[in-house]
Amino acid sequence: MNRTGTGKYEVLLERCHAFEPVPTAVAHPCEESALAGAIEAAAKGLIIPILVGPKARIEETALKAKVDLGKIQIIDTPHSHASASKAVELVREGRAELLMKGSLHTDELLAAVVAREGGLRTERRISHVFIMDVPNYHKVLVITDAAINIAPTLEEKADICQNAVELAMTLGVERPKLAILAAVETVTSKMPATIDAACLCKMSDRGQIQGGVFDGPLAFDNAINKEAARIKGIKSEVAGRVQIMVVPDLEAGNMLAKNLSFLAKADSAGIVLGARVPIILTSRADSVRSRLASCAAGVLYTHARRGTTALPTA
Description:
Order of helices and strands: HEHEHEHEHEEHEHEHHEHEEH
Number of strands: 11
CATH architecture of the largest domain: 3-Layer(aba) Sandwich
Number of helices: 11
Mean pLDDT: 92
CATH topology of the largest domain: Rossmann fold
Helix content: 40-55%
Radius of gyration: 19 Å
Low-confidence stretches: 1-5, 310-314
CATH class of the largest domain: Alpha Beta
């Protein structure tokens, strides 16, 4: 859904105006929307794209999309696998500080990212976040992980939480409020997700996960609605004020994000964290707002890591 005016995503874009555009390796932009997304982000001053893919196909795509490539650098590669590897190589060489998915499959790009030789792995688990602008919710809503980790372990969920907290802080949230979602709000051995939720909250208390305010297990209604939490007798700093929803597994997260997109008409930006650099994920179904918001999140995160922008203090 395309919306105009000053909204949640527009605030992110405004925050980027103070910073330089970030050199970005765009892997295999050989489809019109993928190429246009990179060019739009460049026109907004968010990124300096380096297009990595078959040069003839990129130029042909630009003609079809009526996109002027101007002086944008193109690095010629024979196919999508080589495009992914070369884009990752540009990051390792320091020529790019962001990685952006073009028209290749996400799995193909991430395979190059997590490769033991020549990849961008860190000690942190890689995870995906949806940054959602839900029209009838008062804040940007982060959902994680709904795209990469199918059935994460407790330790992997801790990394997923830490990735999301750090992103939220770079987006301007001082102490992000996290709801660890389950089907119920009480801990029971019959539902392992509730046990993980309780453990994650205690890990936060002990400093194993830093920077956020945690509560869980919380059912979706209790997390999103103060009145629902009040009726259940839940006293929580998070309920009704949630900014990050941590789902129990990929299936639950994917269904939640798509429900919000198609029933609540939410826009969804996407970014992958936990590698050496943020990875911007866009799809053909994304609106212009969503594509730009994904880039803006990556830009803000990159500048926070550079130290050129401070984390929020208020």
